[in-house]
Model the fold of this input.
Amino acid sequence: MIIVKGNNPRKIEKIWELVKREHTGKKIAVISYSGEVPHNFIRAKQISAYETMTKQNMLTNLTDFLSKIKGRYEAIILYIDCEAHLVEPLRELAASHQEKFVLTVYEDKVDCVIER
Done:
């Protein structure tokens, strides 16, 4: 799992740079909360966008949703700017799937940092 931390609202550009380098031409999905997918940016990239998450039951929603789309995508971008305490549970969830995962984490003191 690649983790993109920071408070920069244009993190999607850094994520796209990562995806372009490793992308083999198969499908990519962005999963986010309702109204938070950067549609203007991803529209030209032919990426599927799903705004299915709710902040109240995020882990449960994500587990259910990933089981429905399992195997359909090469990479999944979790564009959710989650809090740091959710990174490990999300990492464990991603480990049970074959897709590559990119996760955004909100961190107030950092502009944009990428961790592999």
User: Anything to note?
Assistant: Helices lie at 11-22, 39-42, 58-69, 87-95. The beta strands are 2-6, 28-33, 48-53, 75-82, 100-106, 113-115. Residues 33 and 53 are 5 Å apart (CA to CA). The longest strand covers residues 75-82.
